[in-house]
Amino acid sequence: MRVPAAGGTPIPVTIMDPSKHDSHRWPYFLPDGRHFLYLAVTHGNNRDANDAIYLSSLDGKENRLLLRTATNVAYASERLLFMRGAALMAQPFDPRTGVLQGESERVAEDVLVDGTVWRAGFTASSDGLLAYAGGGLLPWQAMWYDRTGKEVGAAGEKVGHLVNVRLAPDGSHLATEAGDVNSELWIYDPKRQVNTRITFGPGGSSSPVWSPDGQWIAYAGTRGKNNIYRRPVNGMGQEELLLEGDSTIRNPLDWSADGKFLLIGVGDLSSTGQIWALPLVGDHKPVPVTQSAFQAISARFSPDGHWVAYSSDESGRQEVYVMPFGTGTGKWQISSSGANQPVWRRDGKELFYWTPDNDLISVPIALKAGLVEAGAAHSLFRFNSPLNIFGLASPYDVSADGQRFVLITTPRRAPQPVTLVTNWVADLKR
Question: Are 407 and 314 in contact (CB under 8 A)?
């Protein structure tokens, strides 16, 4: 958006292409004050092939792809500064024509990159000063917590861009989505402390969902377009196409207890996404579960498969609801102060969700014929996750008895230095 410095009504400058992106961020003015650079990304994959820097103008008449990268950029000393992994790069750039020239050169190693917001820690001035924070790619890790919020142990390795965690039905393994370049799927065996990769592209793979018997993983695969696949957990055999998608297909959300349906996210995540069900028997034709003008995102089947808990913004903000699946009508609002990411306890008598204030909430639930009775909500603990956004990712999961929680966190580490470089371009010339 643009707005006069003196105030006024914001006016859209860029237009989102929901088939590629759901966020435009980190605008950076070029010297003429009329053109700017910005980063376009999608929350569905922290290393999506469509993530890129675009060149645009305040009048909205110009908008074109300039450079594929997944973090912010800057312009200084006639060069564009951008990231390649944890390395800061510089390449000659003509801001008048908007054209990159020559070859890129490495400026610094191990620069801080926070993948949760697609931002690297560097800045440069017009008089030859460069400052950057050290630290490289922030590692993420799945950790176990009890109902009081006490950390009780690691649930996996430290990895780059850990986005989703899903416990196997028997709780013996953990499926995750992670990767510094493309997102891929991994299965972690806590007894052996072994992390095994089970997808290998091409493109990224995301949003793992276990089959009820624990033998399969369903997931979204970017193969030119978003498709839904499944493959055996043991990694043997090729991926099996379940749904050939298009720009509207997002990701699988949950697998019904009888194995007959997958809940999937469909539509534009930034506005009116909906929940559909993909039959795994018969004609495999998806059918809508939610149908409204409002956004519906994260969703889980109840353990008996008769109900669906989901989040919707029909009240003006995301709240958690429960509705019958397949038969019957009606819905019951469970939360009241903002919520997403509902997860059931294995017996269906408790529902958990996450608030915008990072509180993990527990609500007693009684499921009866045509009726949902919800008890008083109780805050278990506050947990500041880097992934409490939109509800697309699954940044936590719950043990079958509801006594332990696996959550994604960024491990604590010592503060890193900030390096100041004077006349940094001279180093390139040498």
Answer: no
Decide: helix, strand or coil at residue 3.
Answer: coil
pLDDT given at position 412: 72
Q: Residue 126's closest CA among 75, 163, 165, 52? A: 75
State the Cα–Cα distance between residues 303 and 344, nearest whole angstrom.
7
Beta bridge partners of 277: 263, 287
CATH superfamily of 139-409: TolB, C-terminal domain (2.120.10.30)
Q: Check residue 81 and give its pLDDT.
A: 97
Q: Can you give the pLDDT at residue 47?
A: 58
pLDDT for position 75: 97
Residue type, 367: L
Describe the strand order of the beta sheet including 319-324 as a list of residue ranges: 296-301, 307-312, 319-324, 332-333
How far is Cα 150 from Cα 108, in angstroms, rounded to an integer? 38
Closest C-alpha among 194, 251, 179 to residue 217: 251
* C-alpha to C-alpha distances, 181 to 159, 184, 310, nearest whole angstrom: 12, 9, 31
Torsional sign, CA 383, 385, 387, 390: positive
* Nearest Cα to Cα of residue 395 among 98, 179, 128, 142: 142
Whether 139-409 and 23-136+413-429 are alike in CATH topology: the answer is yes
Distance separating the N- and C-terminal Cα atoms of the chain: 41
Determine the 3-state secondary structure of 429 from DSSP.
helix
139 burial type by CB count under 10 A (0-12 exposed, 13-18 middle, 19+ buried): middle
CA distance 90 to 74: 10
pLDDT of res. 264: 93
Q: Is 176 helix (H, G, I), strand (E, B) or coil?
A: strand
What is the rounded CA–CA span in Å between residue 121 and residue 224? 32
pLDDT given at position 311: 92
Highest CATH level, class, for 23-136+413-429: mainly beta
For the chain, list residues with pLDDT below 50: 390
Residues 6+ apart with CB under 8 A from 11: 1, 2, 3
Neighbours of 214 (CB within 10 A): 14
Pair 273, 267: CB distance under 8 Å: yes
Residues 298, 144: Cα–Cα separation, whole Å: 22
Q: Are strands 99-100 and 105-108 parallel, antiparallel or unpaired?
A: unpaired
